[in-house]
Amino acid sequence: MIDVGEIARRYGGAVSGGQALIPAIGHSNKDRGVAIKPAPDAPDGCIVHCFNGADPLAEKDRLRADGFLPARKAKAELGPWLPVATFEYVDATGEVIYRTVRREPANWPGPGKRPKEFRAERCEGGRWVAGMGDCDRVPYRLPELRQAIEACRPVYLVEGEAKADKLAAWGLPATAIAFGSNGWRADYAGHFAGAKVFILPDNDAPGRDFARKAFSDLSGCAAPAIVELPGLPEAGDVIDWQGSADDLEKLCANAALPDWLHQPEAGAGADKPASAFRFVAVGNLEFRPPEFLIDGLIEASALGLLFGDPGCGKSFLAVDIALSLATGTPFHGLAVKQGAVFYIAGEGHNGLARRFAAWAHDRDVSIANAPLFVSTRPAQFLDAASANAVAEAVEGLAALHGAPALIIIDTLARNYGPGDENSTSDMSAFVAAVDDLKARFPGCTVLIVHHSGHTEKGRARGAMALKGALDFEYRLERD
């Protein structure tokens, strides 16, 4: 296993959360933009995250050159990446909607497990094309899932299609969702309405996170339970498990909620997990006065929207808000609560840089060390993997500079992902992804920059599901 302490010492970095945080190639010694985390089952035995635009492959090559990783195998030695399994997702009638294809290199000498990747494909014009497009997302083995629910049989939810196929071969109604632990979406829950659902997580942190999210979303329409399989190795799953179908059914019959269900992954939990739903007497409600990031204007722990016509100055105002908070500068006479700001920029990065510089010049305030961080590319919040990557990038920098006080998404359209703004279900999924990001950082506010409607200038564009989720909303107009 790699030695994160030695890596941190070699490059003048630090160790935090079990990972080495080091300067990226060509960056100053104060930079901590590269995180190296041990992962025995990953290629090379580690995972490299870059938070400042650095190239993770180049960072790995540096580690190889300095003897921390084995020499890279020539691409020809690995051979081509070949499809090894295909999993079709069908509608209730059995018609194929899309499929996922698992690919692996033809030759893999190790160390670690053979690398894999999954690709989604949809059929258009008689041929398979990359991506799901606007296809309806459905659980794997949907017809069997519906038959089981109609017959009042319990169903089993796992992270991958091969695991569901194993359980189905045992005669158990089983399903999965595309892209495993990163693929769960709140709108999958409706397919399980009225069912008893046994969630079987992998034995690792992503598996537990998947189980938490699925359990939470299913609790509103089904009867979920989480079943931990005994004797699994780290990162093991039902395919590794040595039990039988009878063993599994006995485990499920006596399933109890795991201690970690209502606890953050790295924290120690209370002795008894909190109830998923409860009431409190009105006299016992705790009143807390609002806490503002900008006095009287933007609250902490809120979801807000700034909308207006194109060219009305929305991004200028967002930059003003961001830099005021990051530098602790009063916002047009209003007191601010200084804190880290993360700006998810969908476009115009060069223009943003000019605006930041102009703001600093106009206010005569240095922004050299301001805790304001700008993304190098848009997010895709309707894509679970992209949304998770955003959260991981924020968490990596938050460990060094403090949790975000404010996250700005500019604009909704550029960071939306593969969906329709006018679709209630797509907009609800977008809001759920943003809420999940906000929930990771207590006290954080998310401000979404958006366009006004094409014909109704007094409201934001798209489905009303967004408006219903907001804590505050501002419309910007030119004088």
Q: What can you see in these coordinates?
A:
- By secondary structure, this protein is α/β, with parallel strands linked by helices.
- Strands 17-16-18-19-15-20 form a six-stranded parallel beta sheet, with helices on both faces. Strands 1-2-3-4 form a four-stranded antiparallel beta sheet, sandwiched between helices.
- Strand 9, helix 5 and strand 10 form a beta-alpha-beta unit.
- The radius of gyration is 24 Å and the shape is globular.
| Strand neighbour order, sheet with most strands | 17-16-18-19-15-20
Major β-sheet profile: 6 strands, parallel
Radius of gyration: 24 Å
Q: Report mean pLDDT, rounded to a whole number.
A: 86
How many H/I helices? Answer: 13
- The helix content, as a percent range, equals 25-40%
**Strand-residue proportion:** 15-25%
How many runs of DSSP E, i.e. beta strands? 20
Distance between the termini: 62 Å
SS content category: alpha/beta
Shape: globular
Low-confidence stretches: 266-276
Keyphrases for this structure?
single chain; alpha/beta; six-stranded parallel sheet; four-stranded antiparallel sheet; 20 strands; 28% helix; 479 residues
What's a concise summary of this model?
It is built from 13 helices and 20 strands. It has 479 residues and is of the alpha/beta class.
Could you give the topology of this structure?
Blueprint: H1 4-11, E1 14-16, E2 19-22, E3 34-38, E4 46-50, H2 56-65, H3 75-78, E5 81-90, E6 96-105, E7 117-124, E8 127-130, H4 142-150, E9 155-157, H5 161-169, E10 174-175, E11 196-199, H6 205-218, E12 223-226, H7 245-253, E13 292-294, E14 298-299, E15 303-308, H8 314-327, E16 340-345, H9 349-363, E17 372-374, H10 384-401, E18 404-410, H11 412-415, H12 424-439, E19 445-451, H13 465-469, E20 472-476
Helix pairs in contact: 8-9
